[in-house]
Amino acid sequence: MKIINCFNIFLLALIFLTIPAALSQEPTPEMLKAKEFFSNAGIPGDKWKEGETMQPHVAPAAHHSASLLYYPNTEELQEDEVRVIFMGSTYYPTQSQSGMSILVQLGNGENFVFDLGIGSLRNYNSMRIPFNTIDHVFFTHLHMDHMSDLPYFMMFRPIQSGWTPLNIYGPSGSEPRYGITHMVEHMMEMTAWHQDSFHAWPIGEGYNPKVHEFDFMDEGGTAYEANGVKIIHWPTSHTKDGATSYRLDWKGRSICYTGDNRPNSLTIKYCGGVDMLISEVQTATVSLTSQALGMPPAIAAYTVDTSHTPAYGLGYICEKTQPKVCVATHYSYEDVFNTETVAEVRHHFKGAFAFGAPDLVTFNLHGKGKVWWREGVAADSAQIPLPVFKTETITFPAPRHQVYDVINDTVEANEIPMEKWYPKGHKPERVKEWPLMEDVTIPNPFKRSEK
Ligand SMILES: [Zn+2]
Ligand SMILES: [Zn+2]
Predict the structure, then answer these.
(1) Does one domain contain both 312 and 190?
(2) Best label site of 91, 136, 234, 336, fewest CB within 10 Å?
(3) Are 362 and 70 in contact, with CB atoms under 8 Å apart?
């Protein structure tokens, strides 16, 4: 027993003496090499070229909460960051794709919408974008796959507290009746019944859109300029005069969205070196595409050859402009065609390429000239997001009339009295009239307002 104890003491002494000696020891060349390996393994630096198309500027940011998926309202935009969400990405709506609509969110809190095609609004709800955070909508042209959700948006934006005028931007046409002003005026006529019915609720200036029509022939003219944001436009060839392309610039970030068109030399002129060049694309397999999508080949060939951008054309434009990422949208996103489309783009362009499809794909322009893109995630079921008010109080604008001012007495008399169907004492007081026909200011009730 004594021997064992002595041996243990000897061992302990040995350990206490050797550990400090080991710690103070100079690292061996092997240790330094291992440290180098663990620090830099897999990081190219100037040691090798990474991939075929992914340049050093393609990277996620540390603050992106998931690097492969974008979950709405999980990330704060940095003050100089831009987020671009494809709320719509095609021309024929399907379960996974709506008509064209692109939301550009700036780090200063401003939102800009480009096109508002069929079905896209449900994606704004799914991605938690309250209607009252959208004040500026730009249209590339007036085909319904790009604008048919506008009437609904106009009518329901005030119901989600959008009580200020909506700014609508777009081109003139070859005649006044083909310009955006004419379209909006007549859309407001079309919605006369809807407006008058909803004027029994607070609407404010929500049904007084401000239309900003610009000359469709103006090359490089300014469509919008405020708070450091500049949006220019130029004419493009697409089915009829009055189609336009846009470029947005803010804090050194730049995005071109060319809308629908034939490949256009002005796009090369105005989009050189942008962060994102977003263009429509058609796979140059007209016969096969026609069989797959059910369009007679003659119509498909005529449509593409007069009015659209085959993927070879997009590759050519991106090769000439060298965007940080070349983005193809307005595209029926199908596995069977995707690799072919990429191959056609690659015939000319070797840089970073992405599809702006299917719906919800999300791009971030961040850091020092970096770009990243991910699938956007929306829950299967969506609810309307709470409106955003940045003020301590909100002011309800006065309605123009009461509901029963625009329902005649005979029709009203046919209503079954509520006493007959509410349980006794369940609803003691009926709110039959808006209580005060003037503006009312109250503390902001949306304590849980989303950003
Ligand atoms: Zn279109
Ligand atoms: Zn079109």
Answers:
(1) yes
(2) 336
(3) yes
> Is residue 285 domain-resident?
yes
The helix (H) or strand (E) run that includes residue 246 is strand 243-250
Q: Among 342, 376, 410, where does a domain finish? A: 376
In angstroms, what is the span from residue 411 Cα to ligand 2's centroid? Answer: 44
Asked if residue 385 lies in contact with residue 161, where contact means CB atoms within 8 angstroms, the answer is no
**In the block, which residue shows the tokens 């006794």?**
424
Query: Which of 349, 376, 403 is the C-terminal boundary of a domain?
Result: 376
Does residue 296 share a domain with residue 435?
no
Same domain assignment for residues 90 and 161 = yes
Interval between CA 117 and ligand 2 midpoint (Å): 11
Say if residue 358 is preceded by a cis peptide, omega within 30 of 0: yes
Q: Retrieve residue 352's tokens.
A: 């970073």
- Cα(142) to ligand 1 centroid in Å equals 9
Alpha-carbon dihedral angle through residues 331, 336, 342, 347, given to the nearest 10 degrees: -120
Token pair, residue 54, equals 């992914």
Decide if 150 is inside a domain: yes
Task: Tell if the pTM clears 0.85, that is, is over it.
Answer: yes
Residue 52 Cα, ligand 2 centroid: separation in angstroms? 33
What is the maximum alpha-carbon separation in the chain? 112
Residue type, 125: N
How far is the centre of ligand 2, averaged over its atoms, from the C-alpha of 238 (Å)?
Answer: 7
Q: Which ligand is nearest to the CA of 98?
A: 1
What is the whole-number distance in angstroms between the Cα of residue 251 and the centre of ligand 1?
Answer: 30
Report the candidate in 254, 155, 135 with the shortest Cα–Cα distance to residue 203. 155
Same domain, 183 and 322: yes
> For the chain, what is the domain count?
2
Q: How many CB atoms neighbour CB 424 within 10 A?
A: 6
Looking at the structure, do residues 248 and 353 belong to the same domain, yes or no? yes
Q: Which domain holds residue 411?
A: 393-443
The answer to whether 339 and 355 have CB atoms below 8 angstroms apart is: no
Residue 241 lies in a domain: yes
